[in-house]
């Protein structure tokens, strides 16, 4: 699914410079840094440049989620139209929160850092906000998790293709 989303974005945004496409992909939930690094490798953007673009793109939404999502959700739940959507999103996010609740900082780092479907900076930040983890602590954990995710995804996106070429 992620690959088809990356392909869709790269086609739709083909009129933009590749770096801008990678930046936008990195900001989008589900794709985030992981999708951005895959797209950057496909565009043959140098790895160091891709890392900077993807981390910045993925981090931009995080403070807004950590500091603003709770009051926004509170307001949305007070409306008849948005209540079911917010409750479903909260329920789905909290289903993934057990390790974060138990290990807090380290749990959040691993949740954001290990590239599995449904994990990442967006969901990690949402869970941290719903669990009322202090925003500064959560932001540091998300940043640390992004470093871990970057290392893993750089190996997958740049390292493995390089090794295969060398064989």
TrEMBL record:
The record's Pfam families line, in alphabetical order, gives: Sm_multidrug_ex
Q: Which residues form a coiled coil?
A: none
- Give the residue range of the signal peptide: none
Spans traversing the lipid bilayer: 20-43, 50-69, 105-131, 138-164
Q: Which UniProt keywords apply?
A: Membrane, Transmembrane, Transmembrane helix
Name of the molecule in the record:
Small multi-drug export protein
């Amino acid at each position: 699914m992620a690959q088809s989303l990356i392909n869709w974005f790269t086609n739709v945004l083909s009129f933009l410079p590749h770096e801008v496409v990678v930046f936008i992909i990195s900001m989008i939930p589900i794709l985030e840094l992981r999708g951005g690094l895959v797209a950057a490798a496909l565009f043959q953007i140098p790895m160091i440049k891709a890392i900077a673009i993807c981390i910045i793109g993925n981090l931009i939404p995080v403070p807004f989620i950590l500091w603003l999502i709770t009051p926004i959700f509170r307001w949305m739940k007070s409306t008849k139209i948005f209540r079911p959507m917010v409750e479903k999103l909260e329920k789905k996010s909290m289903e993934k929160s057990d390790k974060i609740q138990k290990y807090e900082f380290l749990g959040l780092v691993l949740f954001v850092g290990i590239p599995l479907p449904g994990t990442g900076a967006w969901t990690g930040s949402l869970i941290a906000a719903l669990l009322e983890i202090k925003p500064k602590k959560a932001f540091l954990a998300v940043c640390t998790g992004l470093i871990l995710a970057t290392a893993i995804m750089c190996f997958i996106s740049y390292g493995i293709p390089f090794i295969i070429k060398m064989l």
